[in-house]
């Protein structure tokens, strides 16, 4: 292998890793957004529509995320945006299923709040301000990284971030 080939392979692997980092940050931001006004706003807008709209959005966005990641093994921008919005769509479901989802996401947010709060701030546990700060920061980093390292879905090729 020439030096140029090694550099190209290393750059591709680094970009792929950063695309995955943006997807992980988007998922963290999406889940933590559900404990703040950001997620409440998205859930509220989705809840305005027909009773089946949240189920349709959950299925469609979930399939888009899975299909995008499985198509080439690298999350593209579509998957990043889906990971940001999907948890809020899940919380907009009403009834027994909605309470089940709400319990899971609330438990996850409490866990994150307990583990993260003691390391980064003196804000008391259970503060919505902390979860808002985490969600906005994670979502901002995810969007910036996805626009820099994750390609648009139509331009992505296998092995290319």
Distance separating the two termini:
21 Å
Q: How many DSSP E strands?
A: 0
Largest sheet: none
Number of helical runs? 6
Mean pLDDT: 80
Regions with little confidence, pLDDT below 50 for 5+ residues: none
Structural class: mainly alpha
The helix content, as a percent range, equals over 70%
Fold and architecture overview:
The structure is a single chain. The chain has about 160 residues and is mainly alpha-helical. It has one domain (about 15-150). Helix content is about 80%, strand content about 0%. It starts with a helix and ends in a 12-residue tail after the last helix.
Outline the secondary-structure elements:
Blueprint: H1 3-33, H2 37-47, H3 53-72, H4 77-91, H5 95-120, H6 128-149
Helix pairs in contact: 1-2, 1-4, 1-6, 2-4, 3-4, 4-6
Main features:
mainly alpha; 161 residues; 6 helices
In short:
By secondary structure, the chain is mostly helical. It contains 6 helices and no strands.
């Amino acid at each position: 292998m020439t030096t140029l080939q090694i550099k190209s392979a290393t750059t591709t692997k680094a970009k792929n890793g950063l695309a995955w980092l943006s997807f992980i940050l988007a998922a963290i931001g999406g889940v933590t957004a559900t404990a703040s006004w950001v997620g409440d706003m998205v859930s509220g807008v989705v809840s305005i529509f027909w009773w089946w709209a949240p189920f349709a959005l959950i299925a469609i966005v979930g399939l888009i995320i899975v299909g995008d990641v499985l198509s080439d093994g690298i999350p593209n921008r579509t998957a990043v945006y889906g990971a940001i919005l999907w948890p809020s769509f899940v919380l907009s479901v009403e009834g027994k299923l909605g309470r089940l989802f709400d319990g899971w996401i609330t438990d996850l947010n409490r866990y994150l709040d307990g583990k993260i709060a003691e390391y980064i701030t003196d804000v008391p546990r259970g503060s919505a301000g902390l979860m808002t700060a985490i969600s906005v920061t994670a979502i901002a980093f995810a969007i910036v990284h996805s626009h820099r390292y994750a390609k648009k879905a139509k331009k992505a090729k296998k092995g290319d971030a």
